[in-house]
Amino acid sequence: MKNFVQLAEIVTVTAPSGGVASGDPVLIGALFGVASKSAAAGESVEIMTEGGFDLAKHAGDTFSVGDKVYFNASEKKLTSAAPSNPRIGVAMKAAVGSATSVLVRLNGLPIS
Fold it and tell me: Which Pfam family, giving just one, matches this sequence (predicted)?
């Protein structure tokens, strides 16, 4: 197809203020992904917008398989709390309140 440009599960963005470390969650507008490498603020960095990732979660939150997962940008952690937090994917594995992370499936769609 002559108008195909690239697969879109990896997107190059400008690292936000404070920079990013490899594996950090990154939110740019309505685009959410996971940094593939470390980058200083203003540098180009590739983020993965699709796939399964084990990411830090808010203490006390619990997840069952298939639960919606949201991103708390101020904490830079995943949460089960929907109000004012954008939805970024679904839980692929259950996580108890004492767990420090949750396995989440990112689907590459704009956050909602």
Answer: Phage_cement_2
